């Protein structure tokens, strides 16, 4: 412990003995040494209470006695009190040395401090009962985001998380991945000056899933501030309050976490494509490509319907990563833009395209229902550029209107050709097909009884999620998982070309499943051109 | 419409009977003072109690009739958050009008408005028409900025000034029409030429170079 490097300022300078003094605690509770460094410690603010208390002592004591000596008396007295504290509560500690320049306090102690004076979020039953928490903080423990509760009020708790992380990772060799504590799983992600923590008591979530979700949150933050800016800010001042750069986008994080609950595309690292006749899709793509090709600065053109990709126009040499598409969709679903807004001009960083650069997204809804959305990505920030794109959008909109494309797309929502019953195996209740070549997936509708209940559908999602992480576990090379469970039989199958996740009725036989899977493959093969985006025109860039 | 006519936003066609002018107007001010609400009231006559915060910048258009002139406003409703501040020049550059908004129940937002005015007068085009809007007049009982104080400030800096309420629609139409009236509707050529100068100054370099430039300016 004593050779802790100065990586984290709050933990850097405690001596060996001080740590030992703590070690008789029942639980392992890290200590903060929040005032040791001269830097403004982020934890400092929350120690106001403590400080206040000490100042009061200082005043009363110095009034009643002469200078010099009373200081010592004060300290002595405090110390006695603390020892008493230890005996009764066994959770220390507040040691005060001269001029309140050094305070050692552990997190639990602080909780109790808070309880008496201010409303501590951690003690709030509603807060505690949440099945999922996501916390984001800087390496120095400064709160950035919390899914539930005001992050500023959680400063002590964030400090605890930061301490856990830094104690494990202080020698630069270890990495804290997760902690399982009873029903709770706690996943950690430490990336470029940020610490992301997910605490979940959801029974169906495995640690890998929590890590995946934290990765999305990390990417969401990068998409707002860029990696280079984070590096720059924190190398200059590691106590920086990153919320300054994120104001107004907390909602995006919350929306992202919410979507992760049931979005197959985000789970499978796939684009959500919108099924459409090949001819219609081709028609749409041609219109867009034709209009944006002359505008040299446009890199990508995306057309979404119902937040799913209809068409993607890209330069020949570059592709857009599914995660980046999810980030773009997150902007659209996360903010409710008034209909009268012709377009929004939004600076965004796509971490898988260039994690250090900003692109500009021209976002405009093309129809009254706001279901069709055009996104044009450009490297030019010039506002005149956006006006040019607006003219381009008008032309695209007009062409699509004259070719009746909005109507066709709307009709497709009621299309029956892709229904589950087309496969003709009644035991097959639901399936998910991922094409590993195009990074797109197809999800079927739900058979009975699942179609009746959203909860059941969520349960299927959670089962697939577990299957997915089992199949993708690096330490185990299972290719097929077949599980006969209480309410259903589920199957996961992974090959280099595709992945299948399927739900059958519980008493299905293996023969029937094999038959069903074969039919399912036939079905997807036959409908490939409809389900997936393929052979899109590219931009000559 | 050709892009040339568009970018010369100082004015459109000057038909003999009724002229059409096109002006670029930008809204600036601290976050949640009601910029989007003002615009939405002006463009749609609507008001939402819980207006979502703007991301990046939203573009809207609205046309008003002033005597024999049709004035088309191209409105840039910018996000008020501090992190977007460095992007603001992109929107007020070449703008003929700006509305700087503050919340009359929030003193701080008035101070912020003053810094916006200062920035505009220093960096925007010299004959930009600036209006100061003290929004949320419906919250007069929580007033933190007096009418006199703001009026005096506006007079000293030769700004149009009105207290508005997007909620009750008070003075919303008026502030836009006063701006429209004050805007010069003649110097089309001068506007257009300056605009093109501006553009050539910005468009140098490929997409990559611009990308770097923007990430740099976002770093501020």
TrEMBL record, chain A:
Pfam family, one: Fuz_longin_1
Transmembrane segments: none
Record-annotated FUZ/MON1/HPS1 second Longin domain positions: 297-397
Renumbered residue ranges of the record's region Disordered: 1-22, 55-92
Annotated FUZ/MON1/HPS1 third Longin domain residues: 428-527
Compositional bias ranges of the Polar residues kind: 1-16
CC annotations in GO: Mon1-Ccz1 complex
InterPro entries for the chain: FUZ/MON1/HPS1_longin_1 (IPR043972), FUZ/MON1/HPS1_longin_2 (IPR043971), FUZ/MON1/HPS1_longin_3 (IPR043970), Mon1 (IPR004353)
Residue ranges annotated for the FUZ/MON1/HPS1 first Longin domain, each copy included: 132-255
Example of a GO biological process term: protein targeting to vacuole
Family: Belongs to the MON1/SAND family.
PANTHER family: SAND PROTEIN-RELATED, VACUOLAR FUSION PROTEIN MON1 HOMOLOG
Function of the protein: Plays an important role in membrane trafficking through the secretory apparatus.
Protein name: Vacuolar fusion protein MON1 homolog
Lineage start: Eukaryota, Metazoa, Spiralia, Gnathifera, Rotifera
UniProtKB/TrEMBL annotation, chain B:
SUPFAM superfamilies cross-referenced by the UniProt entry: P-loop containing nucleoside triphosphate hydrolases (SSF52540)
Region described as Disordered: spans on this chain: 186-220
Reaction equation(s) it catalyzes: GTP + H2O = GDP + phosphate + H(+)
Keywords, in A-Z order: Endosome, GTP-binding, Hydrolase, Lipoprotein, Nucleotide-binding, Prenylation, Protein transport, Transport
Predominant place of localization: other
UniProt-annotated location(s): Early endosome
Matching SMART domains: RAB, RAN, RAS, RHO
Ranges that cross the membrane: none
Top-level enzyme category: hydrolase
A Pfam family reported for this protein in Swiss-Prot or TrEMBL: Ras
Protein family (similarity comment): Belongs to the small GTPase superfamily. Rab family.
Descriptive protein name: small monomeric GTPase
Organism listed in the record: Brachionus calyciflorus
């Amino acid at each position: 412990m004593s050779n802790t490097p100065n990586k984290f300022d709050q933990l850097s300078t405690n001596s060996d003995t001080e740590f030992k003094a703590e070690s008789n605690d029942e639980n392992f509770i890290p200590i903060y040494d929040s005032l040791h460094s001269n830097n403004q410690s982020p934890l400092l603010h929350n120690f106001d209470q403590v400080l206040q208390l000490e100042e009061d002592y200082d005043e009363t004591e110095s009034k009643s006695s002469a200078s010099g000596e009373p200081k010592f008396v004060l300290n002595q007295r405090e110390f006695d009190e603390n020892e008493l504290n230890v005996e009764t509560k066994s959770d220390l500690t507040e040691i005060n040395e001269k001029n309140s320049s050094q305070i050692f306090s552990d997190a639990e102690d602080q909780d109790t401090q808070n309880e008496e004076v201010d409303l501590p979020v951690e003690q709030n039953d509603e807060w505690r009962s949440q099945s999922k928490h996501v916390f984001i903080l800087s390496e120095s423990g400064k709160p950035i985001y919390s899914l539930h509760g005001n992050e500023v009020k959680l400063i002590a708790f964030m400090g605890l998380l930061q301490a856990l992380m830094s104690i494990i990772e202080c020698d630069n060799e270890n990495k804290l991945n997760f902690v399982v504590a009873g029903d709770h799983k706690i996943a950690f992600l430490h990336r470029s000056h940020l610490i992301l923590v997910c605490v979940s008591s959801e029974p169906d979530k495995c640690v890998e899933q929590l890590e995946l979700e934290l990765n999305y949150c990390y990417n969401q933050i990068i998409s707002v501030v860029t990696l280079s800016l984070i590096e720059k800010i924190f190398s200059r001042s590691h106590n920086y309050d990153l919320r300054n750069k994120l104001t107004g986008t907390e909602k995006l994080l919350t929306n992202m976490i919410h979507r992760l609950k049931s979005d197959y595309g985000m789970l499978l690292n796939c684009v959500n494509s919108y099924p459409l006749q090949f001819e219609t899709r081709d028609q749409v793509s041609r219109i867009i490509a034709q209009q944006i090709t002359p505008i040299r600065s446009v890199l990508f053109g995306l057309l979404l319907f119902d937040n799913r990709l209809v068409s993607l126009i890209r330069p020949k040499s570059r592709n857009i990563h599914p995660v980046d598409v999810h980030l773009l969709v997150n902007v659209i679903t996360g903010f409710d833009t008034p209909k009268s807004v012709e377009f929004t001009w939004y600076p965004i960083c796509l971490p898988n395209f260039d994690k250090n650069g900003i692109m500009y997204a021209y976002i405009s809804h093309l129809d009254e229902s706001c279901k069709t959305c055009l996104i044009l990505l450009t490297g030019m920030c010039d506002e005149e550029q956006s006006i040019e794109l607006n003219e381009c959008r008008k032309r695209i909109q007009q062409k699509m209107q004259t070719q009746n494309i909005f109507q066709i797309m709307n009709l497709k929502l009621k299309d029956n050709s892709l229904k589950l019953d087309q496969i003709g195996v009644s035991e097959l209740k639901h399936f998910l097909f991922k094409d590993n070549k195009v990074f797109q997936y197809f999800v079927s509708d739900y058979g009975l009884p699942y179609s009746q209940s959203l909860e059941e559908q969520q349960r299927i999602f959670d089962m697939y999620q577990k299957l997915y992480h089992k199949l993708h576990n690096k330490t185990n090379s299972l290719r097929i998982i077949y599980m006969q469970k209480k309410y259903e039989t589920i199957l996961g199958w992974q090959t280099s070309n595709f992945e299948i996740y399927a739900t059958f009725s519980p008493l299905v036989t293996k023969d029937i499943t094999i038959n069903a899977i074969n039919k399912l493959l036939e079905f997807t093969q036959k409908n490939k051109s409809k389900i997936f985006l393929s052979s899109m025109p590219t931009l000559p860039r | 419409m050709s892009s040339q006519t568009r970018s010369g936003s100082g004015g459109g066609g000057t038909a003999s009977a009724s002229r059409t002018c096109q002006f670029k107007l930008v809204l600036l001010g601290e976050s949640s003072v009601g910029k989007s609400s003002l615009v939405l009231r002006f463009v749609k006559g609507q008001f939402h109690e819980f207006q979502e915060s703007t991301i990046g910048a939203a573009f809207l258009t609205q046309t008003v009739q002033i005597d024999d002139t049709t004035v088309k406003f191209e409105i840039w409703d910018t996000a008020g958050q501090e992190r977007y501040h460095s992007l603001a020049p992109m929107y007020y550059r070449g703008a003929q009008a700006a509305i700087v908004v503050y919340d009359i129940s929030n003193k701080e937002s008035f101070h912020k408005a003053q810094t916006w005015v200062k920035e505009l007068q220093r960096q925007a085009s010299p004959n930009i028409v600036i209006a100061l809007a003290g929004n949320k007049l419906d919250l007069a009982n929580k007033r933190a900025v007096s009418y006199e104080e703001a009026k005096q400030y506006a007079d000293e800096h030769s700004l149009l000034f009105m207290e508005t309420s997007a909620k009750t629609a008070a003075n919303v139409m008026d502030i836009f029409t006063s701006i429209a009236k004050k805007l010069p509707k003649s110097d089309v050529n001068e506007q257009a030429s300056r605009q093109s100068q501006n553009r050539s100054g910005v468009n140098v370099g490929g997409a990559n170079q611009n990308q770097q430039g923007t990430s740099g300016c976002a770093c501020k």
